[in-house]
Amino acid sequence: MRYHGMVIRPPSEANSYILQVTYGCSHNRCTFCGTYLDKPFQTRKTSEVLDDIRTAQTMMPGVRRVFLADGDALVLSTRRLAQILDTLRDGFSQLERVGIYASAQNLLAKSVDELAIVREKGLGIVYLGLESGSDDVLARVEKGVGSAEMIAAIRKAKQAGLLVSVIGILGIGGMELSEEHAQQTGRVVNAMDPDYFSMLTLMLVPGTPLYNQWQAGSFHLLKPSAMLMELHRVISQLDDLTQCVFRTNHASNYLPLRGTLSQDKEYLLSVLDGALTQGATVLRPEAWRGL
User: In this structure, is the dihedral angle defined by the CA atoms of residues 271, 291, 163 and 54, taken in order, positive or negative?
Assistant: First the structure.
């Protein structure tokens, strides 16, 4: 099995077999992201991918979950994805689910029928980086789409029967847009009603445009307490969710939280209130945070 570059996957895919089907990210212009700066976008030859699957069969025959990397593997055609998924299903008798990162652009480019086809062939969950529900923030970080497209993309995935996991980033609006970022993120997540919602905490990566903006003084990074206050504002607005599992278990976060928003909202807010009162003593040390 081969893997080119740094491995990036959601925390929930920690025990999954990571199968690289693309290199990098087809968008790769987000100002905060340094993940694929050294890895130009390219799709892998299907023959190489299938060869890796055959190798994995001999090394890890009991695979239950697979994650298709890199950043937006859903950019592959439905035909190619179907072939990969068929090979995975045939090769791993205990396979339960395949996951994939998906951009709003790639979800919108496929029809509901196409998404249903790959779902029937084993794709179980898509992870979408919302980052923010604020159109101003999305434009500033050059996400490439606005909040309306984000909502439409998630609704399309759900219509096709896929589980959806939505990811936001605390602090991505800086001090200037913190309140708007929180309010609009809550609005958009309510409209999406995802199965899973998680928030990471912004970490500035040297070499990225956002890092350069911070150094130049045009972007003002929030302090840890302000990050928690922003998270409090987001959670406070999440009222229209069916059965959404919430997590802040990523290594970038200062405070790990978990719960189901339809029943644990007040508990989550109370934990945040306590952390804001106690201060840095209950937060993850800066040196322990990571991407």
Answer: negative
**Axis crossing angle, helix 178-192 with helix 224-236, rounded to the nearest 10:** 40
Digit-coded pLDDT (tens) for 67-100:
999 888 999 999 999 999 999 999 999 999 999 9
Whether residue 11 has pLDDT greater than 90: no
DSSP code string of 266-288: HHHHHHHHHHHHHGGGGSPPGGG
**CA 185/CA 246 separation, integer angstroms:** 14
Provide CB contacts within 8 A for 18, sequence distance 6+: 3, 7, 9, 66, 67, 69
Tell me the HSE value of 43 on the side-chain side, using a 13 A CA sphere: 11
Which positions ≥6 away from 266 have C-beta within 8 Å? none
Look up residue 109 and give its amino acid: A
Secondary structure element (H or E) that encloses residue 128, with its range: strand 123-131
The span from the CA of 221 to the CA of 266, in Å, is 28
Can you give the pTM of this predicted structure? 0.94
Is residue 139 within 8 A of residue 176, CB to CB? The reply is no
Percent of the chain with pLDDT over 70: 99
pLDDT tens sequence across 156-191: 999 999 999 999 999 999 999 999 999 999 999 999
C-alpha distances (whole Å) from 82 to each of 13, 24, 35, 121, 149 are 21, 21, 27, 7, 25
